Amino acid sequence: MNAIIALAIVGPLAASGVGLLVRERHHLRDAITLMGLSATALAAIALLIDVQRNGTTVVRVGGWDPELGIVLVADQFAALILVVATLTILVVDIFAIGQRGTASTGDQTVVGPMLLVLTAGVSLAILTGDLFTLFVAFELILVSSYVLLTHQGRAAQLRSGMTYVVINLLASTLFLLGLAYVYTATRTVNIALLAERIPELDNGVRLGIGLWFLVVFGTKAAMFPLFSWLPDSYPTAPTTVTAVFAGLLTKIGVYVMIRFHTLTGMDDLGPVILVAAGLTMLVGVAGALAQNDVKRILSFHVVSQIGYMLMGLGLFSVAGVAGAVLFLVHQIPVKTVMFLVGGLIEDDQGNSSLDKVGGLAARRPIIAVLFAIPALSLAGIPPFSGFVAKLSLIDAGINAGSVAIVVVALVASMFTLLSMSKIWLGVFWREPTPPSEPASSKASKRMMNGATMAAVAGTLAVVALAGPLWNMSEEIARDLLDGQTYINEVLGTDRGGVASP
Amino acid sequence: MSAALIAAVAALVGSGVYLITSRSLSRIVLGFSLLGHSAVLALLAAGGSAGAPPIVGSSDRAPSDPLPQAFSLTAIVISFGLTLFVLALASRQRQLTGDDLVEDDVEDRRVAQLSSKPADDRAGETA
Which one of A245, A384, A462, A488 has the fewest CB atoms closer than 10 angstroms to its CB? Predict the structure, then answer.
């Protein structure tokens, strides 16, 4: 299994190198990209099956002791999110290849290789067992995302790219300063060792570390009040790029936050996280209602949905964290699919503004269906995946006695439905508008529709597997909140009395 | 020693953040470099007091902690690469607009102006 963990990180990086070398030969480059991404996805699936059967796998890179070296940890949580993430990127790449034949996109030479670098970064961020490697993984993700965001060099992309780059540079610096802080306090950056040592720290230092990393990861996750960069930068990027960003980048922030804050026992930050969660939901959805362009509306919904995951984390109960994990699994494919549909609309009409587009339901019924399923899922209408995830969160909230956050979550859901209806009225009903000229070729349309359908099928699979996924989420939540399981798995139980002071 | 380092970190973070809030990308690059330096200094301070070079058998004194130094090196390399990227962005922006200022989001301005219009004006627009 060690080789498979390494493959999930090194594989895409190697493929991206080869892809860049042959970047001018489109078919070869696309084939290499697809192969690299499929291999990573298969590795992730193999890892999940293995973790289910034999438990957590820990790789000590170079054989170093966890005190000094890098450890990669594939536990259930990591393997589950890794599968969802890699499959999502694979689908988006198929969409991107289909899109290459269309008029609107321009130069796509580096998209495939950069998606591979992004995949390597995402795998590393998910699998890593120490905070410094996490920092490196974030940088890997960010560098590839900077290129993906700005590589076409258009004025609007440059403008929004700058905001994105600057805010993320600042967040990275804060991350480094936080690392110095943690290292001074605990003499380690290994997450398992931190899970042991942080709870023993002085209360002020401990909460300081918790709040500091809440800000660092909250900026990545677009938590209120650190979200304003997201709706600013996402809409201008090419569709495929936005789809990956919306589906994955913020969710990686949430994933890391769930892992770090539960394992290090930051329960007393719960109220702070809950307040931020409620405001994130409300401000996000209010922003969405004010917008008039499909991609901008969806960008604000990215922010709003982050609030639900934070809500589950903020409850710090098994049901709450399990709900957050399930929500994460539901949210990655749903968000991606919504932006892919936004891309289909743009491909057909030349833009995605609600004022200029209309009547697509009559002309392109497939797009309408592909939009309706994830839209209802996003709003939490049964029987779609959003309903299952939201139900578990609301249930956890009621059980924990946090009525206020439950009310906020329900209100935000209602507004989400309202805003989805706004898109439906604007884009799919009314008088049909003429399609943009020249229309894309049949082949690329088929490929783009196919990729979107695959992603929709993914969201439906979350519903079909809701039972097993819920059990898995509950187990993950129990292990995270307990912490001792993770510590024993990473450090080994035979540490000759080091564990018991 | 440590107090001086921490004061330097504070000064660098202060000036760095001030520069980053500017609209001109060249100032932002400078600010970001200062912030990068501050992080490296903070990591060094995290390593504790200085000792002998951390090479086995080179000295009898207690060695410095090598881990923060490894972190610093990685951080320096990353911030070097990113500085170049931001400079490239600034250069491209200059090609497009003649300066390197970060501009307003036009669509965002439009949405913000909606709320400042009189109510009857807006009603006529949506009808």
Answer: A488
Question: Contact at 8 Å (CB) between A282 and A252?
Answer: no
pLDDT of residue A257: 94
- State residue B117's pLDDT score: 57
Nearest to A480 by CA among A214, A273, A262: A262
- The percentage of residues in chain A with a pLDDT greater than 70, rounded to a whole number, is 96
- CA of B39 to nearest chain A CA: how many angstroms apart? 5
Token pair, residue A272, equals: 């702070």
Statement: residue A36 has pLDDT above 80: yes
- Asked if B43 lies within 8 A of A179 by C-beta distance, the reply is yes
How far does CA B1 lie from the centroid of its chain? 25
Residues of B in Cβ contact (< 8 Å) with A173: 16, 32, 35-36, 38-39
Nearest to A243 by CA among A332, A310, A359, A163: A332
DSSP codes, A223-291: -TTS-THHHHHTTTS-HHHHHHIIIIIHHHHHHHHHHHHHHTT-GGGHHHHHHHHHHHHHHHHHHHHH-
Kindly list the domain boundaries of chain B, sorted by start residue: 2-52+64-126
Alpha carbons A367 and A348: distance in angstroms, whole number: 10
Per residue in A391-448, pLDDT tens? 999 999 999 888 999 999 999 999 999 999 988 888 888 777 777 766 777 888 888 8
Quick one: pLDDT at residue A345? Answer: 86
DSSP symbols for A22-38? TTTSHHHHHHHHHHHHH
* Residues A4 and A48 sit within 8 Å (Cβ to Cβ): no
Q: For residues B120 and B118, what is the distance between their CA atoms, to the nearest angstrom?
A: 6
C-alpha to C-alpha distance for A306 and A279, rounded to whole angstroms: 11
Q: What is the pLDDT of residue B121?
A: 47
What is the number of other CB atoms lying within 10 angstroms of the CB of residue A163?
Answer: 17
| Per-residue CA distances from A421 to A354, A385, A429, A452, B7 (Å) | 12, 18, 10, 20, 55
Would the CB atoms of A136 and B96 count as touching at under 8 Å?
no
Cis peptide before A365 (omega within 30 of 0): no
ipTM tops 0.90: no
pLDDT of residue B1: 57
Nearest to A169 among B42, B82, B93 (CB): B82
What mean pLDDT is predicted for residues A343-358?
A: 82
Domain limits of chain A?
2-489
Does B43 contact A176 at a Cβ distance shorter than 8 Å? yes
**A292 in contact with chain B, both atoms CB, cutoff 8 A:** yes
Rounded to the nearest angstrom, the minimum Cα separation between A12 and chain B is 20
- Pairing outcome for strands A57-60 and A71-74: antiparallel
Q: Identify the residue whose tokens are 């290849």.
A: A97
| pLDDT: which is higher, B50 or B88 | B88
A169 touches B: beta carbon within 8 Å? yes
Q: pLDDT digits over B23-51, tens only?
A: 888 889 999 999 999 999 999 888 877 77
Q: Is the pLDDT of residue B124 over 50?
A: no
* CATH number for domain B2-52+64-126, candidates 1.10.287, 3.30.70, 1.20.1640, 1.10.3470: 1.10.287
